[in-house]
Structure formats: structure tokens, C-alpha cells
Amino acid sequence: MPTDISEKELETILVSYLRDHQGYEEGVSSDYNKEFGLDMERVKRFILSTQKEKVKNTACFASPTEERKFFSRFSAALSKRGVTDVLRKGFKYISEIFDMYYPTPSALNPTAQQYYDKNIFCVTRQLYYSKEKTDSIDVYISLNGLPIMTMELKNHYTGQTVENAIKQYKEDRDPKADPTALILQKRRCAVHFAVDDDDIMMCTELKGNASWFLPFNKGVNGGAGNPVSPNGVRTAYLWEEVLGKRSLSDILENYAQITFKEKEVKNKKTGKKEKKTIESIIWPRYHQLDCVRQLLKATREGGVGQKFLIQHSAGSGKSNSITWLAYQLVGLLDGTTPILDTVIVVTDRVNLDTQIRDNINSFKRLSNLVDWADSSQTLKDALQDGKKIIITIVHKFPYIP
């Protein structure tokens, strides 16, 4: 039966679904510590339930003074490294590295499943996040006490749309205007969503009016927007599909990323070109997530030798999609045996070859995983050396010595 959102607000639908159907805890705003920009009690609960020996060795929660010291350093690590990196790699305190998240387990590892079940997914409505302002964010999602996403929700029935939510982020959620609002600061929260009952937009770094929001829609017949939903809310896939525990875990483990690329920029004062490191906070758009997941599923079920044609357009993020796919393809297993020995990314243009290479390298987690074949000989060497991912252009293939 279609949901009458003129009577039941979008916020209630979303939070209730995550709590009742996705296994989330429902938090309250006072759980969030404004000084450290996280949920102290859930961080403590997660650590105490999984790493008691490390707690004992560091005495991190032995007294209010020690606890404050721990969270002060922890908060600094979030600002420096970003929440995604801390979740993946943990946090070093004194002599111990605290795991801050347990990844999705394989079917062959029941112990890993027990650890994964210790992860605390939490949704909170109306989060009062600032020391200086009385503003609240409609919805806040955390994992083991760490901020993952915020959402501003709007409803056509009240005369507001996703554009109003974007405007609210740009004008009322400017991190420079409120330095005490840690959840708005760069790297402190993975993504920010503007949502109404028809459309979703996302932003990974709030910059006031310069905040760049991208569509997170499913698309309709190759175009923009979202298809009609059986429950009446076109954006229900966000909480029914994307924010499921396994789905969100998959995004955090395999897609969310902070990348660094060197780029030549013109110095405004000298007029000379200089190399500058550009930092980008990455979160997949829906069509990218859907594309990669479908291809992985098809490969897992049908093996190699299949052919697929992926429709894309300029600015659709195809380089990221190719990168995510390449890294995950080399990790596919049939039991304990890799399905693929090597993934070869072949382009038809030198500039695209370089772009893909730089993109894959910026996502690189293992130094010996990727190779770039800039000649027939290096292509041969990479194949013989068993490199997992090889980037090259089609012109190299007519002749391999």
C-alpha cells in the first residue's frame, strides 16, 4: 500500500525502517559529543566488547582523565586521516592499535561473523551538532560511534524539494562559519545527503556555497530521476537497499576513499605552473554502485568470458567505476581460489590510459598490485610477473615480444 507521506513525515519512515528492518539502533542527539565530534559511549561500548585486553594494556578508560586523553587523540586522528581510514585501519593509542570496525566476513569464517555482528550501526534524528548554534540535522548515521553520513530531508507535500535541502547545507551548514561543528568539517563525516520523496543528491565535502552536490538517483530509462516505487516514495531505495548493513559495509570497505593526485595549477601571483596535491573525498553514486555490483555478481556466477556493454556519459565517473571494478575483480574467490589471475584495463586513447592509471594508483592499497604497460615489452613483463591489475592501451596488443 502506498505510503501517505502527507501524514507521516519522511524522517519517521526512514528512521523507523532502519531501526525495525535493518537492525540499526536508534540514538538520541545527546549521545553525540560535540567537543570530540562522535558518540563516545558507542565507541567505548564497541571497544570494550571486542578489545578488552587492549583497553587494559593502555588504561584508556581507567579514569575520566585517561578517557579524555584517549578521545582527544582519537578526534585528532579523525580530523587528520578521515573517518573512512580510521574505520579501515584502526587507531593507534600508546602501544595498541584499536580496531574500529570489523569487515564483512566470508562464508568460510564463522569467527569473523561473530566479530562483524559486534559493529554498532546507529541512526539518530534531529542531531544538535554545534556548540554555538541551535541548528539540528534531520538524520545522522554512525558506525561504532563514528559519523558516516548526515541527511537533510524535504517533502514535496510541504512545498519543499531536494533543492531546498541543498540550499540548507550550503547556507546553514558551512563548516567555516561554525568551526565547532566537527561533523561538518572535511573528512570528519564520509558523506552528506539531500533527500526528498523523489530525488537524492550527495556531497562529500561541505564548502558553503561551493559545496558540490551530485545525483544519487537510480535513473529512469537512461535519464535522470527515480522510477515509481511500490510504496509511494521514490527514494525508499536509500534506506531499503543502500543503507542495509551489508550494503553500507560494502561501500565503506570497497568504495569510500580519500584520494590524492598531483595536478599542475597556475600560480595566480607568478603566472607559473606549479604541482599541487589535490585531495578528493570519494563516495560512489548510485549508478556506479549498481554497475559494479551487477558486474561482480555476473562474474561470480558466470565466470570469465562474458561480454557487457555499460552505458555512460561525460561526467558519470566511469574512471572510478572501472577502478572499483578492477580492484574487486582481483579479489573474487571461488572458495579459496581466485576466479581471476589478472585484470587488464584496456583503453583506446593515450590520455584516457594515463587518466585510468592515475585513478587506479590514487586508490592503490598494495604497491605491488598494479602495473602500467607503456610499451609492448612492459606489457609482456607485467603479464609474466603476474601483476593483478595491468593498465594499457589497445595499440600494445598487436605485438607482444
UniProtKB/TrEMBL annotation:
Domain SWI2/SNF2 ATPase: 287-397
Protein name per Swiss-Prot or TrEMBL: Uncharacterized protein
Pfam assignment, any one: HSDR_N
Domain annotation Restriction endonuclease type I HsdR N-terminal: ranges: 5-208
Domain of life (superkingdom): Bacteria
MF (Gene Ontology): ATP binding; DNA binding; type I site-specific deoxyribonuclease activity
GO biological process: DNA restriction-modification system
InterPro entries: P-loop_NTPase (IPR027417), Restrct_endonuc_type1_HsdR_N (IPR007409), SWI2_SNF2 (IPR040980)
